[in-house]
Design a protein that fits this description.
It is built from 8 helices and 14 strands. By secondary structure, it is an alpha+beta fold. The strands form 4 sheets. Strands 1, 2, 3, 6, 7, 8, 9 and 14 form an 8-stranded mixed beta sheet that branches. Strands 4-5 form a two-stranded antiparallel ribbon.
């Protein structure tokens, strides 16, 4: 029994030690928390010149712009709720105007198996924007298009189609006035690297292939109406009273903010609400009264309690798709 309790205690200690020690920033976590007290969030922008292949691209871009405006306040509220910053605010400027002013170039990257668009910004323009808004750092969030090979399963999971699919992705960076990237998403400092597409623009039409007794499954673009309904599905906000947020935005925001919290919230308390750790101290018991013997009086020596332990690059070539059948 003692060995089991010891094992449980060691496991809990390991979780605290390794979980809390994780640093997702590109600089020491303590340095970041001291350096960035006022964080600005640029309006979320969509990059229309990225790899968006939808035949009704203009209508798609319009839908995403509108969705960005509706949901970006949720990201600001989530960042405030972390307790990391003295102030978090959404810049009042137009997203397209900010993007056109500070944007320098875009690179299609594949790092550690993750495909994403990396954005670079103009130094002087970025510094001027931050100075005008009196910011320590600026968070820039971009929605852009990508095409990559993937395996998509049918609704009954019995078949899948491995092909190239076009989809939207959401990336983010926190920059200082000198253009240094202090933090980024996708984040490559995670122990288990994960980065999901923001919104798929294509799907394999298994039903049509089955209805026509065809072994070939076509990859089709979702309709504009379908995309609008997809990004329009909402859930209750976890940080805004009576607020609602798109399910696809909520999933992306939660992934980001999880990597921006100062430490893991093990007990459901915010950092400022947690009790300060108890420092090691020595307590001394009072000396017992003198014990009188018939011969000569003697006094029992005082005993001291032991110290308390402190508590704890090129565009991919779209190949002919292949369909495979799997039997569960």
């Amino acid at each position: 029994m003692k060995s089991i309790l010891k094992l449980v205690t060691l496991s809990i200690a390991a979780i605290f030690t390794f979980g809390c020690a994780q640093n997702y920033y590109n600089i020491p976590k303590e340095t970041y928390e001291k350096k960035v007290r006022v964080l600005g969030v640029a309006p979320i922008f969509i990059d229309p010149e990225s790899d968006i292949r939808h035949p009704e691209k203009e209508a798609l871009v319009s839908i995403v712009k509108e969705s960005n405006r509706k949901n970006e306040k949720e990201l600001v509220a989530l960042l405030k709720d972390t307790g990391t910053y003295f102030s978090v605010g959404l810049l009042p400027d137009d997203a397209d105007r900010i993007f056109s002013t500070i944007f320098s170039r875009r690179e299609r990257r594949e790092d550690a198996g993750v495909i994403y668009n990396k954005y670079f910004f103009k130094g002087p323009e970025l510094k001027d924007l931050m100075a005008r808004n009196k910011l320590d750092a600026l968070m820039v969030v971009a929605v852009s298009g990508l095409t990559a090979k993937d395996k998509v399963y049918s609704g009954n999971l019995l078949s899948y189609l491995e092909s190239h699919y076009n989809y939207l992705t959401m990336t983010a960076q926190i920059l200082d006035a000198d253009g240094n990237t202090l933090w980024e998403y996708p984040n490559f400092r995670q122990r288990t690297l994960s980065f999901s597409p923001f919104f798929p623009l294509q799907y394999p039409d298994f039903d049509e292939a089955k209805a026509n007794e065809n072994d070939r499954v076509d990859v089709k673009f979702k309709t504009i109406a379908g995309i609008g309904r997809g990004v329009g599905k909402t859930v209750k906000s976890s940080v805004q009273d009576n607020g609602r947020v798109s399910t696809v935005y909520s999933a992306a925001f939660d992934d980001m903010v999880l990597l921006l919290k100062p430490e893991f919230d093990w007990f459901g308390l915010k950092k400022e609400e947690r009790p300060a750790p108890v420092t090691a101290s020595v307590q001394t018991r009072p000396a017992p009264a003198a014990v009188h013997q018939p011969t000569a009086p003697q006094t029992a020596p005082s005993a001291s309690a032991p110290p308390l332990a402190s508590q704890p690059a090129a565009e991919p070539v779209i190949q002919a798709p292949t369909v495979r059948e799997e039997t569960l």
